[in-house]
Write a structure and sequence with these properties.
Bound molecules: alpha-D-glucopyranose
Helix content: 25-40%
Strand order of the largest sheet: 3-4-5-2-1-6-7-10-11
Structural class: alpha/beta
Distance between the termini: 9 Å
Radius of gyration: 23 Å
Number of strands: 17
C-alpha cells in the first residue's frame, strides 16, 4: 500500500506548529511498519530548501483564474528523512520565506492543483491520498468533482483535522479559481455562505480523522461553526491520538541538551539542564521552574498569562520561563513583568525548546482548545510534569496526581484556576522524594508513534 501525505508543513523542512511534527513523523513510522509513505508540500524559501539538494521530477503549468503559472515537482535527493519528500515549486506564489500569508487561497489552491496535475501523469499512483488541515482540504473535492481529475476519483482520500479553528474560508467571488466542476455540486464547497475548504474536505473525504478521541467528541459541540456538519458526518470520523517522534525527542540522545540523561540518571541530568536555563535566564535554581512553550494566542490561554504570572509570582516561591511569540499585545504585557523569577524568550528556538523540556520542573498548558497537544508528551518523555486544562488531547494523555496519576489537571481556565494548579504543583514539588519518583515514572510512558501509525494503517485498509 502506498500513501501520499499532502501538507503545508512538515518538520524539519518548514514548521509553524504541531502539524509539522506530525507530518514529519507519521510517514517515517508508516514506512517502518512496511507501508510505503511519502510527503508532498510546497517549496518554500528557507534554510532547509537552500541547504539541501533537490532533483526535478516533473515540470508543467497550471491555469489559476486565467493566469498561467509554471510549476516544478522537486524531489529531495538524500533520504535522511525516512520518507520520500516531494515539493511543489511555484516561484511567484510559494517560494517565500513564510508558510502562511494573506494570499493563502491562491497559494494553497495552486499547490493542490499542481499536486493533482502531476498525479494525472503518474503510472504508480498512491493508494490513499491523506490530506492535512484546510490548506489541502480542496483535494478531496477536486478529485471527486473537477472534470480535469476524473481519472483520479477512485483514489480514497483521508482528511486529518489538526485544528478546526482555522478553515481557510474564502468568498464565492473566487470560485472560478477552482478547476471546473458540475455547478449543481456547489453545496459541497459552501458552508454558511463562504467557500470553506475544511468543510468541503469533511464532506468529500472518504474518512475524517482528528488527532485525539476527546477532540473528536468536543468538535460536535465546538468546531468554530462546523459542529452540525461533524455530527452529521460522525460515522466516517475517528479520533486517533498523535504520537511523538521518539528519535527526535529522546533525552538520552538529544544533542541540544546541556546534559543528556535517561531514567536512571534523571536527577543529575535534569539538574544540569535546569542549571543551564537558570544561568541563561537569571533564575533561582532552588525554586520550582514552570515553563510555557508555544504560540501566544487565545487558544493556548496566553491572553491570561500576564495576570496568571503576576499572581503566581507574588509569593516569591517559583520561577517562570516562557518561549514563544504571537499576539503583540500579550508580548508587550509580558515584557512589562519585572524580570525577577521570570523571563521570556519572544520567538522560537528549537534548541532552547529542547532544553526547557529537560530543565523545567513543570510545563504549563492552559489551552482553551487543544486537539492533541504534543508538548505535554514531549514533557513526559523528559520527566517534566504537565499542568493542563483537561480538554482534547490533554484530557486523553494526562491523569491528575489526585487520581493516581502523574500530572496536574484543572478544569476550565481562569487566573484563579491556573494559579491554584500552580500552587498544587508547588506543594507537590516540595515533596522531593515523591516528585523525583514521579519524574522518573513519566519518562517511561509510551507515546511513540508505533500504535497510532498502525491505527492509521487499519483505517487505510478499510478503504482499499
Ligand atoms: C495543531 C493542534 C495541536 C496538535 C497539532 C498536531 O497544532 O493545535 O493540538 O497537537 O496540530 O496534530
Amino acid at each position: 500500500m502506498k500513501i501520499t501525505h499532502v501538507s503545508a508543513e512538515c518538520f524539519p523542512i518548514a514548521k509553524v506548529g504541531g502539524l509539522a511534527d506530525v507530518v514529519g513523523a507519521l510517514p517515517k513510522y508508516q514506512n517502518e511498519i512496511g507501508v510505503e509513505s511519502n510527503v508532498i508540500m510546497p517549496f518554500y524559501k528557507n534554510a532547509f530548501t537552500q541547504n539541501n539538494t533537490f532533483e526535478k521530477v516533473y515540470k508543467s503549468e497550471i491555469t489559476l483564474g486565467g493566469n498561467q503559472l509554471d510549476f516544478t515537482v522537486l524531489k529531495l535527493k538524500n533520504n535522511s528523512l525516512g520518507f520520500d519528500l516531494f515539493c511543489i515549486d511555484i516561484p511567484q506564489l510559494l517560494y517565500k520565506d513564510y508558510v502562511y500569508s494573506s494570499e493563502d487561497t491562491e497559494r494553497f489552491l495552486s499547490f493542490q492543483m499542481a499536486v493533482l496535475d502531476w498525479f494525472l501523469t503518474l503510472e504508480n499512483l498512491p493508494d490513499i491520498i491523506h490530506v492535512h488541515d484546510h490548506h489541502t482540504g480542496l483535494i478531496p473535492f477536486m478529485i471527486s468533482q473537477s472534470f480535469n481529475y476524473e481519472t483520479l476519483k477512485n483514489i480514497p482520500t483521508v482528511l486529518t483535522i489538526h485544528n478546526a479553528q482555522y478553515q481557510g474560508w474564502f468568498s464565492h467571488d473566487k470560485i472560478h479559481l477552482i478547476p471546473q466542476f458540475d455547478f449543481s455540486k456547489i453545496g459541497l464547497l459552501d458552508w454558511d455562505g463562504s467557500v470553506n475548504p475544511l468543510a468541503a474536505a469533511i464532506k468529500c473525504a472518504w474518512k475524517v480523522t482528528t488527532v485525539s478521541p476527546s477532540y473528536m467528541e468536543e468538535l460536535k459541540q465546538n468546531a468554530n461553526g462546523l459542529e452540525s456538519l461533524l455530527s452529521h458526518e460522525s460515522k466516517k470520523c475517528q479520533g486517533i491520538l498523535n504520537g511523538i517522534d521518539g528519535k527526535v525527542w529522546n533525552p538520552e540522545t538529544d544533542e541540544y541538551l546541556a546534559k543528556k540523561y535517561r531514567i536512571s540518571t534523571n536527577t543529575s541530568g535534569k539538574k544540569a539542564n535546569k542549571k543551564w536555563l537558570c544561568k541563561e535566564f537569571h533564575l533561582d535554581i532552588k525554586k520550582p521552574l514552570f515553563a510555557f512553550i508555544g504560540r501566544l494566542v487565545g487558544e493556548k490561554g496566553a491572553d491570561l498569562f500576564p495576570a496568571i504570572f503576576q499572581k503566581a509570582l507574588q509569593e516569591n516561591t517559583i520561577s517562570i520561563l516562557l518561549l514563544g511569540s504571537g499576539n503583540i499585545e500579550i508580548e508587550e504585557k509580558l515584557a512589562s513583568i519585572p524580570k525577577e523569577n521570570f523571563n521570556a524568550f519572544i520567538g522560537y528556538d528549537e534548541k532552547l525548546a529542547h532544553i526547557i523540556y529537560a530543565g523545567a520542573d513543570f510545563i504549563l498548558m492552559p489551552s482553551r482548545v487543544e486537539p492533541c497537544g504534543l508538548n505535554q508528551m514531549y514533557a513526559l518523555r523528559y520527566g517534566t510534569v504537565p499542568i493542563v486544562n483537561a480538554i482534547g488531547g490533554l484530557k486523553d494523555t494526562i491523569i491528575d496526581i489526585e487520581n493516581n496519576g502523574f500530572g496536574i489537571c484543572h478544569h476550565g481556565i481562569s487566573v484563579e484556576k491556573v494559579t491554584q494548579a500552580i500552587a498544587k504543583a508547588t506543594t507537590f514539588y516540595s515533596n522531593k522524594k515523591e516528585f523525583a519518583r514521579n519524574s522518573k515514572k513519566i519518562m517511561s510512558i509510551d507515546h511513540s508513534w508505533n500504535t497510532s501509525a498502525q491505527e492509521y494503517v487499519n483505517l487505510y485498509k478499510s478503504l482499499n
